[in-house]
Amino acid sequence: MRIGIIAPSYYPVEGGNAVTVRRIERYLRTLSCEVQVFSVDQLPPEEIREGLKRFRPQLLHAFHGYHCGRMACALAEDLQLPYLVTLTGTDVYLALSDQRSHAVHRALRGAARVVAFDQCVKRRLAGHLPSLEERTVVIPQGVELPAEAETAPAVADTVTFLLPAGIRPVKDVLFPLHPFRELHAAHPQARLFLVGPVLDAAYAAEVMEALDGHPCAKYLGAVEHHAMDALYRSADVVLNTSLMEGGMANSVLEALAHAKPLLAADIEGNRSLVKEGVTGLLYRDVEQFKSQAKRLVSDASLRLRLGKNGRVLVQEKYPPEKEAEAYLELYLSILS
What is the pLDDT of residue 153? Predict the structure, then answer.
């Protein structure tokens, strides 16, 4: 089977969409699929069209309803191909209801299937477009397990909080800086590291300025995905401060795979993976963030228990092989 993937980003970008596409591509190949990825941030529409004509896929798979769904809709009509759209976050939480809504609605209505990472995303889509509910399929993200999970802190006299996120407003990486200063004053062993690519220059400038006043916090820059393994292993706690997530963030899955406890914003996308007191802790405001962070700094046994539970969860429920098999089954059902 030949699959043409239309992605918001691919190599060398290290954002969540690129990580998702590369993983699915890799595991589809193990199922004897021929896959070619066309990235809209690198190729103009005409080059994508000509590349697809040469590749001759049997169907198109777009990631993100706005960034790629619109193009898949137009190309599918031109090339007489079916297409499906995987919702990845801001398309369903923002673009469905702002000035982009008409284009997104058209792209999703034309799709043979729409994929959501979690039931919460499917329900939200149904609230906007009830007619799509029957065509919407839930396929959870997968995650690769590292060879062995690191459960002990790398340095005994520090507790490291790692925040992996692209630097843009929706990730709200400014949020933890002020409460973390207070946490560090009470617990000098606490450290905060931000890591991820700059995706919004103006917001990144705010973040860098704010970091100047926080000696306990540091921005590590953009790191290639394969190098994130070392950062997860050296962390004691992984943060997710996003205002919204598309059902399940790669960074959250990867933290769980590395047996690291989560301290995460109490939003739909995080609640799909972070169970309070089981795989991590959730917060709704600054005060709750501070109290939960203090618990994690003070209680190594709590960190260890949450981390072990998280690794078991992803090992049992979110293997990448299962994710790829679900997509292949969906492709076959569309073509039949």
Answer: 46
